Amino acid sequence: MKSARPITAAIALSLGSGVALADDGMLERAQMLFEPIPESAADLISERNPITPEKVELGEMLFFDPRLSASQTISCNTCHNVGMGGDDNIPSSVGHDWQRGPRNSPTIFNAVFNVAQFWDGRAEDLTEQAKGPIQAGVEMNNTPSNLEATLNSIDEYVQAFESAFPDSDNAVSFDNTAAALEVYQATLITPDAPFDQYLKGDETALTDQQMAGLDAFMNKGCVACHNGVNVGGQGYYPFGVVNRPGADIMPESDRGRAQVTETAQDEYVFRSPSLRNVELTAPYFHSGNVWSLKEAVAVMNDAQLNSLLTDEDVENVTAFLRSLTGKQPEVVYPELPLRSDSTPLPDIPDYPRGSGEG
Amino acid sequence: MKSARPITAAIALSLGSGVALADDGMLERAQMLFEPIPESAADLISERNPITPEKVELGEMLFFDPRLSASQTISCNTCHNVGMGGDDNIPSSVGHDWQRGPRNSPTIFNAVFNVAQFWDGRAEDLTEQAKGPIQAGVEMNNTPSNLEATLNSIDEYVQAFESAFPDSDNAVSFDNTAAALEVYQATLITPDAPFDQYLKGDETALTDQQMAGLDAFMNKGCVACHNGVNVGGQGYYPFGVVNRPGADIMPESDRGRAQVTETAQDEYVFRSPSLRNVELTAPYFHSGNVWSLKEAVAVMNDAQLNSLLTDEDVENVTAFLRSLTGKQPEVVYPELPLRSDSTPLPDIPDYPRGSGEG
């Protein structure tokens, strides 16, 4: 869905329409700016990483397996909790040795529709993304060689990799681990939100307040960065373009995409986040210090929109955002493969054990 | 299943039979000493805590909800992972602020059949047990009042508690949280292991080696502490009664049940663990430092049985223990209720965030 359609003209048209009435061709405008979540995201990755049942099953086991981390206590699901909107609902994740991640954990749901991964877009796709947290010292703190030794020591994993990657000379690899994780995560999409039903033509799917919020969202600038299938996630934009938020929301030390591109014009530029399921993914912003969705809308109004939204608009847009909560994926917890006597042991800093009872 | 039948005579008979042939009335002896896992454990708790669908559903949400912990990052499932045999497969659990629990996390599967909970049996049942980790400083580090404030701030939880406890004046309570957790955990049982099929009369369910292992298990003393429906978990026994294991396996500082009863004769006495699913729950013993099942059998042979088991017996008993792996519960990951703006924030020690990218 990477810039699947030119929407600049539609945005200009939309912004130009000013204070149009809520029912004045609104569905048609919305259909030009957004797309419903499709039934499947397979076509987005199938050319380079075909989706097969074997890969999905392997990817699901890997996603839930804490043995991907050096301590064998942290799984992908720890910070991308499938029961909590696909993220962890804390300001920044707690990783190896209780270290803190630098930025708020983004939801994994619908991530396949984003133009790139991480807040600064430094990973082109979910295969590349998966390799980050596994190795990051403040997250899983693992190494590709220790991970491969772990997986190779577990018969059921060896068989699962060979089934999922029948053409690989070296099926049990770090690269294939990431590829299987991408395939599984591409299944974690949330169709059928009220807004999707609306986009498909059901004009009763949104409440009156949500309709007013959508109108403001399209007419007063939000849509410039939050459009497409993911209502965001499609491009890079400077944060604080009008007014710089406080340091708790936009800490000076995090220069965003400039840290990736080493280009001055990318200072404090971030990939706009998707707003899909946004009510489930507090706290907000890359810094994760704003807990209220309405407050987050107000912050954006000040930082990006020169307070074009009235107080009522802020309420209405907040209501509209709640229409972006889709059907959450049904996940059956996988039975994880049994270790063997040659499986590497967990690497947990040797803190003394508690002296209480257990 | 608390001492449901007198088995002392059966044990004496069994021990007395010496080197009986493997097919010499073995099924009848086994049926006197053990019981298959039943289809349901409802009758064990229903008098004081009736099982209802509403309580199971609530208990499942609570079991997976990291907001039971002060940091909002640790759930029951963190240390009692339903995909890994109901425990965490590390020596002792990693809790709040990366502190270590004092003893190896026991599996939650079939725990309802144990005579009491924790390695020292200090909790009479799973309701009492649930209150421990939630409050323990090295585990979830929460308080009843903060937990109740959290649950009360979440509409869906308030409704779920009111449905589950319709007769409670104060439905959203710490006590009811523990009661719902007990009910959910009482559903986490693993019937239909090969050994259960054998106990039900299928004499082909075990391999020849497993049959030889069962014979040694019954004839050479293991059964004295590991009997009943859970093949253990029914009584208290001194560890190292013949030979004291090394300090890595039996650290001097952990005096076991004596720390609960303050009685000299309970020094280094522990509740015998259930051996159900034991191949899934390495590492072994309360200290969690033995990773190989065969090594664990050898340790017990030396510590408890005066090396009555031959090397071949040790191999065979190990094989028999693998016949205790039952059908793992199928768990659909629950959608956790949405926080509100009044939900207490996570209490995470204010460590600096990693300076890397995220």
UniProtKB/TrEMBL annotation, chains A, B:
It is found in: Periplasm. One of its GO terms (molecular function) is metal ion binding. SUPFAM superfamilies: Cytochrome c. Binds 2 heme groups per subunit. Heme c 2 binds at residues 222, 225-226, 300. Residues 1-22 form the signal peptide. This is Cytochrome c551 peroxidase.
